[in-house]
Amino acid sequence: MTNSTISQDVGPTFEFESLVESIAGQFIGMAYNDIDSAIKSIQKEICEQMGFDRSLIWLFENATPENAIVEYMFYSSTQADLEESSSMAERFPWITSQIRQGCALDFSSLKDFPVKAKSDANELKGLGIKSLLISPMRSENGIIGGISFCRTTCEKTWAKSTCKQVQAIAQILSNALSLKFKQEKNNELYRFEKLISDISARFINLPAHLLDDQIGKAQADICQALNIEQSCLWQWSDTSPHYLTVTHLHTPSYGPEKPVDMNADTSFPWAVKRVLKGETFTMTTHDLPEEARIDRETRIALGVDGSLVLPLCSGEKTIIGVLSFDTIKNKVAWTDAIMDRMTLVSQIFTNALARRRQELKLKENEKRLAMATEGGNLGLWVMETDNHHVWVTQRVRDLFSFESDIPLNYDDFMEKILEQDRDLVAQTIQDALDNNTSFDINFRILHPKGRASWVKSSGKVYRNNQGGPVRLMGITLDISSQKRMEQQLEDQITEIKALKKKIEKENAYLQQKINVQFLHDEIIARSPEMQRVIEQIEQVAPTDASVLIQGETGTGKEVAARAIHRLSNRKDRPMVTINCASLPPTLVESELFGREKGAYTGALTKMAGRFEVADKATLFLDEVGEMPMEIQAKLLRVLEQGKFERLGSTQTIEVDVRIIAATNKNIEQMMDEGKFRKDLYFRLNIFPIHVPPLRERLADIPPLTWAFVREFEKKMARRVDNIPTDTMKALQKYPWPGNIRELKNLIERSLITSSSKTLNVTLPFSPSNNKETATTLEAMERRHIRDVLEKTNWRISGKGSAAEILGLKRTTLQSKMKKLGIQRP
To answer: How far, in Å, CA of 732 to CA of 763, rounded?
Structure first.
């Protein structure tokens, strides 16, 4: 670029020097509050004389030095693209970092920007800037910001002289701003010191009842003066000596509400440890160390960013509370000068709070003394330790049956105390004198004519400056009525305990009967046979042992399995069921152990098996006798090791499954025929349960019948009030080859066909309708006894009774009926 071109754009050198001299002269003797308007005028003047379209000055913040905010700007046009207080670090990160490093920048074109400054160039392009000059602004403390001059009409190649001229202007304005900052800081400190002095004067001779209001006002004034948003005062709780809680809070409308029942020791443990050491410190939420994790989480929840924490330390380094000043959105630089003055504030608060505590304590002592002397029921006494003389109020004389106005000493009192309590009282008083402790003791007084009464004495030792005991002062109260009430209460408690034990025994007996009869809504067990089954279920349910349930079809084997699961520790997860007889042999393995995609033709997806689904739960293998031999070996491995592989996979899967198996087959016969593995049988048969057929549990037929009636009533919107006795007897005589399932179906069919509120039942034809199928000796005996009982109309003793016909004693017959489960319908 030629000199002529430079002259056209920025003017001759002597003109610039004249301009600089004029600019520098403006700031001589200028008041600091006029500097801002002067800088803006100078920006305009420079742009007009040197051919620039706009100028920006941005300054680094003290509280957040990583950020730069636009403070001054000039635009040749009326429309501004940037607002004052815009963040330069967010929009121009590369330029901001270069200025921070003290680099002057000149770009004749935005194309000259390096690749890593692409985002800065795009921002400038969006603002219409073609070329620009930027110079850092320096003070004695370092880089304070930067100044830029831009062209928007066309690109411009900058001469070196122009760049130096801009740097000279930047230095003049930096000096002016430094002068402004110093004056502002001095004025702020002056105003703050004046505020501290005013606050200190407020607390001089301040009545205790006005202290809270003045503390709150002082917090608000300090926050306003320093642009701080929140101040908290924490004190030890009066009711919990280790509980530090908020007592005074100044916060903005968007700040947190006053915490209720927040304990600083648990919410801010890291900060409390430092406070208890007497430390004054500052902290920022996101810069807290890892050991302050709990403090950080609490502060984030409260929305607090920065804090100045000052312990309230009274005499002998006793911490009586904590004072904190917090920022939420604002940024504050905690300078040494500010912290020193804040320490003075904390001491003002400390002295005021300590003085109020002393006043309240003195008032409390005065109140207690007044209660002791004026209450009527309390007696006040003082004993001098040197001569044992005792001064007492009239109430004490009345309690101990002393005459009025006679001098009293320690021995006089000891003679009035019941002999059994005398040594205890003497030792208690001596311990208090030796250890400088207070005491409370209950003892008995012996009155004329042998009457005794209970009193309670509380006392405290007072010492001289050398630490020696001077006097013992306390109160005495008649507690005879209280003792009588305590004795009555003890007698009542003893009686209640005896009644409680009796009720517990009765409740345990009744609970046992209920548990035996109704283990679950699905199980009705009135007969001895089913009661034995329930006992077995209760025994095995809490364990993880495998259970093999055997019984005829329709006897309720799955119901028993569900009862075991619901009483087990695995009840929180559902029981998984698989019917081995309902699946083709080719699918049993994949259903049990799962399969991988493509394991066999038609296996289009991966599938988890029942063992995986039943992990940490119970797997019920219904009709396990139908399981193919080739699957039995794999099942045995799962039972023994808890491991298996999906079909088509080599990856071993471990599970924790409790097995309950059921079958209506004769497994032992199947083992002899080679159709069931013996080792699998022994593994399943750890705890065998046999569910008896319905024909062997006749006592359960009536309640089962009514249960099914009530069940189907709801479904059919019908009502049955009566079942004829003959019908119930016929139901008990029927052999029930289909067991409970057949009974349930019959009741449903009968309810459909019955037109009245009486249930009409038509039993299926069976050769054994009138004769019980006698498959065992016990069954034959049961059938014979029942037939005889029915012929005698259930008369057990006397002439022509069942006992006489059977040739048995009445008691023997009753015992057999109980054993065989024979009950009168």
So the answer is: 11
